[in-house]
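Section 4.2 – Deliverable D4.2 (structural model, holo form)

The reporting period included a commitment to supply a predicted holo structure for the target in complex with pyridoxal-5'-phosphate. Inputs used:
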Amino acid sequence: MNITYLDNNATTRTDPEVVKEMQPYFGEFYGNPSSMHSFGGRVQKKIAQAREKVAAGIGCLPREIIFTSGGTEGDNSAIFSATDSQPDKKHLITTRVEHPAVLSTMKNLESGGYHVTWLGVDEKGRLDMQEYLDNLRKDTALVSVMYANNETGVIFPVREMAQAAKERGILFHTDAVQAIGKIPLDTRNLPVDYLVLSGHKIHGPKGVGAVFVRKKSPFRPYIMGGHQENGRRAGTENTTGIIGLGRAMELALADMELKNKKMSDLRDKLELGLLKAVPNAQINGETLNRLPNTLNISFSYVEGEAILLMLDEFGVCASSGSACTSGSLEPSHVLRAMGVPFTHVHGSVRFSLSRYTTSDDIDLVLEKLPGIIQKLREMSPFSEQNEPIGCKTGN
Ligand code: PLP
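Output (structure tokens):
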């Protein structure tokens, strides 16, 4: 069966060009980049080139890039750098809709004595700039706001928020894992101290990523040991991963505008087609200021998991808003923060496209999904007149 892969915010297919670039460094050139001999030096050189490519992709200096094991480590290391370097500041600001890589780290700091301001979002998933400004304090150690949300694709005003923090001497971190490669992003006009990206979201390999640390912004090694990454991230480098990440970044930037237009056209076709064909469907998140590849849509009175299972029978891969990353059936914290009603949170599905998505992929979903929803609704014990008793609204 052919796979129709529409779950690219979860992970992406590694580009064959990336695999090709990595291949020789698994077998032929296996030297340790820290070795004195030229066999290792060759790998070191290749890593330096990858660093240049990643740096060029976000408009920074190569030495402002630290390679990591992915987005999660990048987020953790940025947050702990800010707190460890300013032990007297005990206030943090973040949002209720961050990825668990930030949420859990913030909760951990909160239970350790930090005061965390959790910014809410409105029904479209937007932050309130005034609420943010009102919460910036003298003892704020860090603001951490994602560039774009992984579930809804909503893009946050990170530039304005970072500027306000900078004017007050407050460090700013952005998790740009979902934004990189999907929208243009340049650290020369984005006054953040830390920016995090991940290889497997941009058609690179899994288990590799990078954190941008602006020159002069404080950084404390999160993983200690050897002198790799200029003493900022110990451990023998994930050489093949780093090489793949460099190539993936290069490819992501090539013709980005053109690829984005194609992706958003296909996403819009899917969105309009589903809204037209399925009654009681709603889009979650604002539609204008959104990643070009993401569609989060709710179908009332059906379960997202059931939809996914039935789509799976046709080889269609997507995500639901009720099964969170831990695999539990907790409703999505993002949709709950937006105040999406219980009946809609549970029936939400996220489709996320990539540069490989074709018109045929979208046509298949448009052909199969309306019938699936109709069938599930016929089987559902719930109806608009008969809402489940005692269910929370998810607020
Ligand atoms: N941040 C966001 C917004 C993500 O979507 C993800 C992955 O789903 C991560 C962080 C974690 O990245 P990684 O899987 O590379 O650790």
